[in-house]
């Protein structure tokens, strides 16, 4: 999956990027569904259940930590506290790339 990501980054910088994007567009939904299905199938429910407190605690720490970091950065750039908190909470969940980066 990481190789496909890097190949996409490299192809985006070529003169063929628009052609590749238009060729892949019809399969976008299918490939996205396949990606999340693969990620879901790689999760071990027994391992998740046996480590549930650790997983929940780590998830909570990541969300709170990322929110605090975004709020601090927002304040440094002059954003109001409420807007900075909203931005922090919206940006707190990890992205899909985290599945790829930390999946192994």
UniProtKB/TrEMBL annotation:
<dbReference type="InterPro" id="IPR038770">
    <property type="entry name" value="Na+/solute_symporter_sf"/>
</dbReference>
<keyword id="KW-1133">Transmembrane helix</keyword>
<keyword id="KW-0812">Transmembrane</keyword>
<feature type="domain" description="Cation/H+ exchanger transmembrane">
    <location>
        <begin position="1"/>
        <end position="101"/>
    </location>
</feature>
<feature type="transmembrane region" description="Helical">
    <location>
        <begin position="55"/>
        <end position="73"/>
    </location>
</feature>
<dbReference type="GO" id="GO:0016020">
    <property type="term" value="C:membrane"/>
</dbReference>
<dbReference type="GO" id="GO:0015386">
    <property type="term" value="F:potassium:proton antiporter activity"/>
</dbReference>
<keyword id="KW-0472">Membrane</keyword>
<dbReference type="InterPro" id="IPR006153">
    <property type="entry name" value="Cation/H_exchanger_TM"/>
</dbReference>
<protein>
    <submittedName>
        <fullName>K(+) efflux antiporter 1, chloroplastic</fullName>
    </submittedName>
</protein>
<dbReference type="GO" id="GO:0009507">
    <property type="term" value="C:chloroplast"/>
</dbReference>
<feature type="transmembrane region" description="Helical">
    <location>
        <begin position="27"/>
        <end position="43"/>
    </location>
</feature>
<feature type="transmembrane region" description="Helical">
    <location>
        <begin position="79"/>
        <end position="102"/>
    </location>
</feature>
<dbReference type="Pfam" id="PF00999">
    <property type="entry name" value="Na_H_Exchanger"/>
</dbReference>
């Amino acid at each position: 999956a990481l190789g496909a990501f890097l190949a996409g980054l490299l192809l985006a910088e070529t003169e063929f990027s628009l052609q590749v994007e238009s060729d892949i567009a019809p399969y976008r939904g299918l490939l996205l569904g396949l990606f999340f299905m693969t990620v879901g199938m790689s999760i071990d429910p027994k391992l998740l259940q046996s480590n549930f407190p650790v997983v929940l605690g780590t998830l909570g720490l990541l969300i709170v930590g990322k929110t605090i970091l975004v709020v601090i950065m927002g304040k440094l750039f002059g954003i109001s506290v409420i807007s900075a908190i909203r931005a922090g909470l919206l940006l707190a969940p990890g992205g899909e790339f985290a599945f790829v980066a930390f999946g192994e």
